[in-house]
Amino acid sequence: MPLLRMPDSAFHPGHLVMVDIPGRTLESDTAAFLRRNHIRAVCLFRRNLGTETEVRRLVADLHDVLGPHALIGIDQEGGSVVRATFLPQAPAAMALGAIDDEALAEAVGAAVARGLRSLGINWNFAPVLDVNNNPANPVIGERSFGADPARVSRLAAAWMRGSLREGVACCVKHFPGHGDTHVDSHLALPTVDKPRAELDRTELLPFKALAASAPAVMTAHIVYPQLDPDHPATLSKAILGGILRGEWGYDGVVITDALMMKAIAERYGYARASVMAIDAGADMVLAQGGMAEQQAAIDALQSAFDDGRLTPAQGGRAM
Fold first, then answer.
1. Range name among 3-12, 101-110, 292-301 with the lowest pLDDT average
2. What is the C-alpha separation between 76 and 216, in angstroms, rounded?
3. Is the separation of the CB atoms in 159 and 127 below 8 Å?
């Protein structure tokens, strides 16, 4: 999984944080914030993307500030979830699932990656491994390759192969599965109450199948009470440290979904959630929001390292 590996260097908690930025240009105060906090990872959203020329300039400026190991991420899944709308638009995963052609899925993944790579973007938060097994799901739908976990596994693996071949890292999501929810975790905290055996047959199957090849995994802000009754997956040692790291031996990068989502922010806050996520087994937290909120996450991590609640080894994959 070389696309997300970084050489050893002086540790700083800013290495464990991915942030977003305002606007379509890199303002001087934002650049100073990124440098001061040793941040290496920025996620772009549609509000950041103007013309193709403007995006190229913004991304180039970010690379200059973040350094040679910069990670520039984006959600360019295809279908309705795309940020760079001036690039050729890929079909949704559901359409690829209906066609069920691995060669086509691989070609689409490669085409998406070529477009992103041409802009200097090197990390795509795709493909989605959620199994579309709840028709009432308000947030997954066409983003899934379908209701059959084996088909999801095959087509997502093919899509990812195409992307990796073109030099853009993937991040499969949303572990351990967001398909069977009727609540959007942007708005509230969902619960999926299923026994482990059932999860192994459905939600967990695609993630386990791609664990040996996916450079990164994004967590879900969902409570699975029969895996961990007390914590959502993003903050769960039993799920991240136990299943993903311990049982499956996953050694790629684990990044949280956005901590600003209400499922996390309203219950834990940026500071506490950042520390809990790294302690649970994540390597990087997605700390969207204003500079004050992002600084709170970085400061909380620094405090946790200072007092021994966290050790540098817990963020080693993102250093």
1. 3-12
2. 15
3. yes
Peptide bond into 38 cis (omega under 30): no
Query: Among 137, 117, 119, 146, which residue's Cα sits nearest to residue 127?
Result: 146
CA neighbours closer than 13 Å in the CB half-sphere of residue 95: 10
Instruction: List the catalytic residue out of 63, 69, 148, 186.
Output: 186
Mean pLDDT estimate for the chain: 91
Lowest-confidence region among 18-27, 51-60, 138-147, 278-287: 138-147
Helices (H), 87-138: 93-99, 102-119
Cα dihedral across residues 206, 229, 248, 319: positive or negative: positive
> Predicted confidence band at 319 (pLDDT cuts at 50, 70, 90)?
very low
Residues 6+ apart with CB under 8 A from 20: 42, 43, 44, 45, 48, 288, 289
> What amino acid is encoded at 202 in this protein?
T
The larger pLDDT score, comparing residue 179 to residue 55, is at 55
Could you tell me the pTM of the whole model? 0.93
Strand order in the sheet with 169-170: 169-170, 123-124, 71-74, 41-43, 17-19, 284-287, 253-258, 216-219, 172-175
Catalytic-residue membership of 228: no
Question: pLDDT of 108-129, one tens digit each?
Answer: 999 999 999 999 999 999 999 9
Collapsed DSSP state (helix, strand, coil) of residue 297: helix
Tokens of 141: 């739908």
Measured between alpha carbons, how far is 1 from 66 in angstroms, rounded to an integer? 21
Distances (CA, A) of 234 to 31, 47, 49: 29, 26, 28
Q: Known catalytic residue: 193?
A: no
